[in-house]
Structure formats: C-alpha cells, structure tokens
Write a sequence for this structure.
C-alpha cells in the first residue's frame, strides 16, 4: 500500500497510525464522491463512513483540500510504482512502451472517478500542493522518455524529441478519463489500449522493425 502523504501536518506522532487512518479516510471518501460528488461530501459524512469520530478526523487532516491532495498523491504513486515495474520489464523498448501504455490506461480506468475529481478540483489546491504533485507527474513522464530514448538509441524508434512523444502519448491516455462522457458505450478499454498502442507504434517504429512490434 502506498504511504498516504506525510507532508500533510498531523497531530498524531505515530506514523503507522496516521497511514492507517488516512487509508480509512481515503477509502471512505472514494465511496462518497462516487455517490454525492466532492463538493456535497461533508467532513461529517467522511467521519460516519470511515468510522472515525469528527473530532479525531481533524487529527489526521486539516481540511477537505488535504483529502484532495491525498487522492492525487495516492493515484500518482500507484501509477508511478506500476510504471516502474513495467519499465524494468526485460523485453525491448517496443514491448516496454506497449506495457506502459496498457498499464496506465488500466490504472486510470480503475481510478477514473478520483482522477476526474482531481482535475475538476485542482484549482482548490495550494501552490505548494500543486508543486509537490507535479513531481509525481514528472516521475511518471520520465518512464516514457527513458523507454523512448532506449528505442531511439538502438534504432528501433525514429529520431524524435522524447519529451514531445511522451507528452503526446500521455495526452491520448488522459482522454480515457477526460473525455469519458463521449467514449463510454462506444469504445471499450481493450479497444482504447489497442488503438493508442497502434497509433504510437505506427508513428515511431522504423519500418524495418515493424515485425518487432508484434512481440
């Protein structure tokens, strides 16, 4: 389980207990926002759902913004950890890139409600919180750039700017959540994975290496 960020001040000094209670808060709020949305979910609702008294709740978080930060930090850490495991796959860059794309789409599909809430409410975060969260996003982006650089260096991928390609790939992946209102019912997750992978591979793999994209 990813540690729920300790940068948020807590009155409790026992770190294990803080992690445990914040996990309860995370799980409770996740359920509530699917039913009521973030704005309509109150601290009292979270207290009741999590089983933590309202008074004790403020020992672990100061305000609702902290919960929003926990959401982003938790989802970002999950994605980064999964990307790290996939990036260490012994396969070549074509296989690694395909697994990164498919894995992140699966993760974003699993946490789509939370991710959408983060996008919608990001304006509520402080500058310090936003800056901290961008670090996680950069770590995620770096995974893609490393694989793309590897493919370029060994001649499997065409010469291109790795940062540009990584950002273009991420934009396509984020469409699964940001444009879910128009994709759901028309496109399955498997179709989305196949479509993004094929668009990327057809665009950057050298023709001489097309056979490698099958493996």
């Amino acid at each position: 389980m990813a540690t729920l960020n300790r940068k948020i001040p807590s009155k409790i000094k026992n770190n294990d207990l803080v992690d445990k209670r914040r996990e309860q808060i995370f799980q409770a709020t996740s359920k509530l926002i699917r039913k009521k949305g973030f704005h309509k979910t109150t601290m009292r609702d979270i207290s009741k759902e999590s089983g933590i008294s309202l008074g004790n709740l403020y020992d672990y978080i100061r305000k609702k913004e902290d919960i929003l930060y926990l959401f982003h930090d938790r989802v970002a850490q999950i994605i980064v950890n999964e990307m790290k495991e996939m990036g260490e796959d012994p396969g070549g860059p074509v296989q690694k890139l395909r697994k990164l794309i498919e894995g992140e789409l699966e993760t974003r599909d699993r946490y789509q409600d939370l991710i959408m809430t983060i996008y919608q409410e990001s304006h509520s975060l402080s500058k310090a919180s936003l800056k901290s969260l961008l670090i996680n996003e950069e770590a995620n982006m770096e995974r893609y750039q490393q694989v793309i650089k590897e493919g370029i260096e060994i001649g499997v991928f065409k010469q291109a700017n790795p940062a540009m390609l990584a950002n273009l790939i991420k934009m396509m992946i984020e469409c699964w959540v940001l444009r879910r209102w128009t994709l759901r019912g028309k496109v399955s997750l498997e179709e989305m994975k196949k479509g993004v992978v094929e668009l990327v591979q057809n665009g950057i793999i050298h023709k001489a290496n097309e056979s490698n994209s099958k493996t």
User: Anything to note?
Assistant: The mean pLDDT is 83. The chain has two domains: 15-62, 73-214.
